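Internal QA ticket QA-208
Title: Verify multi-chain structure generation after dependency bump
Assignee: T.L.

Test input:
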Amino acid sequence: MTLTTRQTRLISRTCLTLALLVVAVPFVFPFLWMVSSGFKSATEIFGQPSLIPRVWRWQNYIEVFEYQPFARQYFNSLYIAVTVTVLTLVISSLAGYALARMRFAGAGLLMLFLLSALMVPEEVTIIPNFFLIRWMGLMDTHAPLILLPVFGSHGVMATFLMRQYFLAIPKELEEAGKMDGLSRFGIWWRVALPMSRPALAAVSIITFLFSWNLFLEPLVFISSLERFTLPLALSNFTDSYGLPLWHLQLAATSLAVVPILIVYLIAQRQIIESFALSGVKG
Amino acid sequence: MADTLTNHVSARGLRAPRFSLRQREAIEAWLFVSPTVVGFLLFFLGPLVAVVYFSLTEWNLLTQQSTFVGIDNYVDALSRNPDFWHVLRNSFVFALGLVPLNMSLALMLALALSRPFRGVVFFRTIFFAPVVTSAVAWAIVWKFLLQGEAGAVNQLLAVVGIDGPNWLREPDWAMVAVIVTRVIKMVGLNMILYIAALQAIPRDYEAAARLEGASNWQIFRMVIWPLLAPTTLVIFVITMIGSFKVFDHIYLMTGGGPENGTLVLAFYIYEQGFKFFNVGYASALAMIMFVIVLALTVVQMILRRRDMQ
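Actual output:
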């Protein structure tokens, strides 16, 4: 019996779906295991493995907050990420607008300089930045965690993203704004920005996540527990020998990851598009 | 004619602008870019110049004095310190393991997920989820999963009769583990870049090739793959640079161990600079990293230009 085209198609579809399901296991499993282990006791974690905890130990989630000032650390990450996002939006859209729309001497050179910053890893400049921040008296404050991302290669990437978007806005709209007596600043604020909501959303999403997940800078600049950000706090759930307290660490990690995942699941289309637009890692 | 001219002049004379329109625009533009420029000079260009200078000095932490030692730190790295070549080798092993694995998996997933079918959004969402997850969380969970006998991965392997190694405690397996878990973390990004590129290819090309009796493989090889070349190039460079930058992933999963088996360049810079305070030496290492990344970028630009011609 020969198969009809429809049947072969159905079979290939099914095979494809099955193959994708197998590949998906290492992508999904860590999340499930993380959440499940966060509800286990320290002893059960090393016992017979099971995805459903035998005893749901909600107490882990209380101990997470007792072990270190986790609520404070959570808040730190949140407010720093919001600040970095807002500053990046303002500064990158101002510069991006000028680079897209205004003629000025040195624009080409400036573009070239900024482009060169795109590719340079922060590891290259972190040592001088350490001395700079220390000289400014900003050690163990949140200032470097805000300043370095805003003005570093991430901020430059946001600037170029905004510039690309402004270039696509019809000039006529701005001319109309000019006729209405708007200044350059007014055109930027009242015409260009409202027209570029998709780009602003993309920059917001990737910037928030970039700041939220930042690790090297907090590690280098922050030393007090109550000034830790989440990534630092997560790595800090250890006993006196420096060994991980898995049940607490995984409960805390779930607390840090699950809200992001929920937002991601709701707005996955928008979020994925933002990353596609920027073409860089968050 | 003369009338309009005088009108024009007198109008200008009335307002008496100090700057011409063009000058005004230039001044405004510089105001717009000034925060970016100041930040760029202060936190990027300044430090970049400083790191060149630091790399030529030896810092004494006790006296807080620095002495100029010329290229001594570079000589140290390249010929005296056996750690350096080991670290550089690790970085290249990591990159050469990660990049092909990441890119081929990304392309395969993109080919499977670039056309609409039931479940396509579901799968895209899953494969991209680790990208939005913090590297720290990802590393913590995988470290947990990859523990010796008690780890979930080995328990799963035991079910099918495989006796898994103590992944993160044996140098070679640790390298494999950090590469594979990093690929799973980041592959979603390259996948969506490939999906975007695939969706931009007109369907007629494929239809035409099919009419001439080309097989799926021939269509991919002769039509799709060449059209993807610019995307492949960009992805290659981004992924390569990303793999040289990798720090948090390794810091948390293996701490550079065991036996320095996963000690990569970014980690080595951190260790030398912030653990041992060898500022001069660490700066020289940072410069070497800079040169590697720069070389990759230049290669990309040359290939791109050739591509366009």
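Spot checks passed. The mean pLDDT of chain A is 91.
Status: verified.
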